Amino acid sequence: MKFDRKPIPVTDAVAKVMEYERFGGWEEVAIDQCENRILAEGITASHPIPPFNKSPYDGFALKAEDTAEAGSDKPVTFRVIEQVGAGHQSSRAIEHGEAVRIMTGAEIPEGADCVAMFEICQTYEEDSMDYMTIKRQMEKGQNIIEKGSETSLGDVLVNKGTRINPGVKALLATFGYPTVKVGKKPVIGLFATGTELLDVDEELQPGKIRNSNAYMIAAQIERAGGHVKYYGKLEDDFDTCYQAVSRAFSEVDALITTGGVSVGDFDLMPDIYDKLGAEVLFNKIAMRPGSVTTVAEKDGKLLFGLSGNPSACYVGFELYAYPVIQRFAGVEKPYHRKIDAVLGKDFPKPNPFTRFVRGFIHYEDGKVLVSPAGMDKSAVVTTLANTDALIMLPGGTRGFKAGDAVQAILLEDPSGQAAFK
Amino acid sequence: MKFDRKPIPVTDAVAKVMEYERFGGWEEVAIDQCENRILAEGITASHPIPPFNKSPYDGFALKAEDTAEAGSDKPVTFRVIEQVGAGHQSSRAIEHGEAVRIMTGAEIPEGADCVAMFEICQTYEEDSMDYMTIKRQMEKGQNIIEKGSETSLGDVLVNKGTRINPGVKALLATFGYPTVKVGKKPVIGLFATGTELLDVDEELQPGKIRNSNAYMIAAQIERAGGHVKYYGKLEDDFDTCYQAVSRAFSEVDALITTGGVSVGDFDLMPDIYDKLGAEVLFNKIAMRPGSVTTVAEKDGKLLFGLSGNPSACYVGFELYAYPVIQRFAGVEKPYHRKIDAVLGKDFPKPNPFTRFVRGFIHYEDGKVLVSPAGMDKSAVVTTLANTDALIMLPGGTRGFKAGDAVQAILLEDPSGQAAFK
User: Fold this and answer.
1) What range(s) does the MoaB/Mog domain occupy (chains A, B) (predicted)?
2) Model confidence pLDDT, tens digit, residues A42-71
3) What mean pLDDT is reported for chain A?
């Protein structure tokens, strides 16, 4: 048994893990399969937007100077030479005294320099010819959306490393990407350990509980942008365990185990790391819950030994595995967004170590509050259902009061941040 | 042409649409396929948590009263009768003077009422028997997590209508749900209209633009929890259009079209609604962008006629289609969360109508700010990439200044709210 572990600060632990972060390379996916994936290349405007001068309204395109004499009692008359719908072009340039009936989104005919809206024009027909009169003066450029006024050719619109949301997808479509290069999802292997664990479809038995960590972590891996490969439960026998872990490790981009990293007699993971020849980056962190979280590295690949305790497991994943998965997938800002918030409820329990309390975000009159999601007993699984943030309470001798300034780590906000600070 | 449309307020429009909201029924999915789906039934504790008295530490289980005489110079000795790991049970109840070596998570043996941590105990062996001495007095109940202390049998833990996050998944596993009843995803049909639209893989042509709305809306439908059925572009010909819309409408739970709802000569949707026998709930809303957003209903099924303008289309979807999709899928709080926030940047342009400005949320010193994501020209597609909120600016004669209190609609926050207000 190894009682002599030295706890390291959370920021040091994160830094040690991130020494081994790497980008997993890209793959090409169809535009209709790319939601929430990460752009492996930025999007540059391959044409101006709009690509031509266009009309924002239904109306008549004409030369503004032709309306110079118009007034409320002096209508000016134009001959309507044709009609242009969106997607079409006029057949020729317009001359003085001519107008083109134009639809929203259609290209402004050559020679025209303004659009008079339908509503201010009168139309009539005479000798099978269409005419239009207007009693107002128009200005050059009026009601014309100029070519390139929204985006110029060559503008960088979205950087690589950006998550694809509906807006980014609209850009991809606009600039003609039927397929798009996105970061590959890392394959994350997952083992649960613990003789006490039953499968989800087994009846409860004396002394045993169902394995909830594996399903929880699998969901966290998916949420982080990884692909889960679940290897099931590790047996108690060391050799069997070692073989299973060793084989799995060769098949994945990173491996997560839950349980077995403590100092108990049945905690096999430390010896497995030894035999694998993996370097243990740390095996004790100055935090609660999750102090026994262990991370090891072999050939640049990471093994995350998360605690068997549900809360500790949850927190350990979000702090140490999440940013590695994000970076692998190509995210530019791999860390959870951390914000200054107002504590919404007393948390009277002092703690010598940094504590990550499961909480939820709420808003009030322009303020952002974070409140504990429930009692923070380290084994309480029920609280996690309401959790969308971790309240980061620094260690010390005092508790915290509602209204105190605290930091909150946002677990469901995809914006992220570039550094863990 | 119908110029005589009467604009209705946004809240009225939402209310009219939601008269036709309905739950789409449930289906059973495997626990490892249920991420982000909506619980069709609440989760009730089918056993207490923990299901038995258990040890939070590695240590020795014993009777506290047996340590009554212990002191720093008065060690009390126990005979260690066996060892119990997590998932196992002791073979018999302990008697006075006896202790059981117990591991974290293991069931407390009958007869024991406290656990002394390893670190405060001395062990030795004599005549092939194991002994343990302790110099401290223990209290009854010390270091025991009592059966049911986290959750009692029958506790309602999560309500139906809740989105399944990693924490909810842990609960499902804990209480033995290999499959789970979730709300069905609505099938949302999608058409784009507009002769000016090119497909994403076509070369740009004079007067034309690529169809970005369809891809954007498809992504919005997926984000809202719907399943997209894309029917492609509608032709210009009325009869062909009518046939296509009519057939599609019979195959989906709701139908979305983009474009064709304006008052232009080529806007066919109003006549299609007529011929379908659909009742138009409204065709003009007192809002910008998106004033021409039209919603019609037939046999309790909805047709959303969104504007062809990208921003108007985006906003129209999030305000009117999103809550319908959420409710169909079983979400209890179907509306986007709307919060009081602080405007982060001037928005000087006054507007007579309620304006929904695309923006993004940021945080500063416990305050929640929302800033415009870019210029809010109604056709600017590039801004949408940075958008995760809509800033709701009431109509009036003045602009808005940084620091003003405004409302923000959160587009990527899954919490939701029960009413649109």
Assistant:
1) 189-327
2) 999 999 999 999 998 899 999 999 999 999
3) 93
Residue B139 domain flag: no
> Which residues in chain B have their CB less than 8 angstroms from residue A51's CB?
204, 209
ipTM over 0.90: yes
pLDDT of B4: 63
| pLDDT, averaged across chain B | 93
Phi and psi, residue A395, nearest 5°: -65, 150
Measured distance CA(A256)–CA(A321) in Å, rounded: 9
Categorise residue B36: left if φ over 0, alpha if ψ from -120 to 50, beta otherwise: left
Residue by residue, what is the 3-state secondary structure of B355-387?
EEEEEEEEEECCEEEEEECCCCCCCCCHHHHHC
What's B66's domain CATH number?
2.170.190.11
Q: Is B222 on the interface with A (CB under 8 A)?
A: yes
Phi-psi region of A144 (alpha: psi -120 to 50; beta: other; left: phi over 0): beta
The total number of structural domains in chain B stands at: 4
Q: Does A162 touch chain B (CB under 8 A)?
A: yes
Distance to chain B for A386, nearest Cα, Å: 7
> Of A328, A354, A372, which closes a domain?
A328
Residue B317, domain member (yes or no) = yes
Residue B2 is predicted with a pLDDT of 47
- Best B266, B288, B309, B415 residue to mutate vs chain A (most A CBs within 10 Å): B266
Q: Do A223 and B165 touch (CB under 8 A)?
A: yes
Is B312 found in the same domain as B269? yes
Expressed as residue numbers, the domain containing A299 is: 10-25+184-328
Same domain, B321 and B203: yes
User: Distance (Å) from the C-alpha of residue B56 to the closest C-alpha of chain A?
Assistant: 9
Task: Quote the minimal CA–CA distance from A417 to chain B in Å.
Answer: 12
Specify whether A69 is located in the same domain as A167. Answer: no
Q: Are residues A249 and A271 in the same domain?
A: yes
Residues A41 and A178 in one domain: yes
CA Rg value for chain A: 32
- Say yes or no: B322 and B372 in one domain: no
Q: Given an 8 Å threshold on Cβ–Cβ distance, is B103 in contact with A49?
A: no
On whether residue A421 sits in a domain, the answer given is no
CB atoms within 10 A of CB A347: 22
Q: Which A residues in the span 111-140 are in contact with B, Cβ-Cβ below 8 Å?
A: 119
Confidence of residue B384 (pLDDT cuts 50, 70, 90): confident
Whether residue A109 is contained in a domain is answered as yes
Assess contact for B304 and B221: CB atoms under 8 A.
Answer: no
Dump pLDDT digits (tens) for B243-299. Answer: 999 999 999 999 999 987 765 556 788 899 999 999 999 999 999 999 999 999 999
Burial of B300 (0-12, 13-18, 19+ CB in 10 A): exposed
